[in-house]
Amino acid sequence: xxxxxxxxxxxxxxxxxxxxxxxxxxxxxxxxxxxxxxxxxxxxxxxxxxxxxxxxxxxxxxxxxxxxxxxxxxxxxxxxxxxxxxxxxxxxxxxxxxxxxxxxxxxxxxxxxxxxxxxxxxxxxxxxxxxxxxxxxxxxxxxxxxxx
Length: 148
Prior knowledge:
It contains two helices and eight strands. By secondary structure, it is an alpha+beta fold. It has a single domain (about 1-148), classed as F0F1 ATP synthase delta/epsilon subunit, N-terminal (ATP Synthase, domain 1, Sandwich), CATH 2.60.15.10. Strands 1, 2, 3, 4, 5, 6, 7 and 8 form an eight-stranded mixed sheet that branches. The protein starts with a strand and ends in a 15-residue tail after the last helix.
């Protein structure tokens, strides 16, 4: 029996797969694997890679915080920000990483330090995921911007 998974942000539903086999969740306390019939859990998300597997196919997302609701037949990822690895622009990621690194090296005003650190963490996570995805197989299915 498969497990239904949804990835949602405040703006839109990013992804939905009604028949996933396995989900790897970047929890705030570490990674957690979820199979069908998992015990109910509500936990916070950290910065990390969310992986959804169906058969031999895999979809990956950069997740930047949020919560996840795990039930025996459904997983709902309520992410602060989620970005599909297939939609990531390598050049934009590199540019963002360079800007954030430069800001950190030059020093930033105290009030902007947290934002600069977060920008650097986001860019490095996205770059790591994008590089890893280049060697992976086909995607499962991506829902379009309208959620269809």
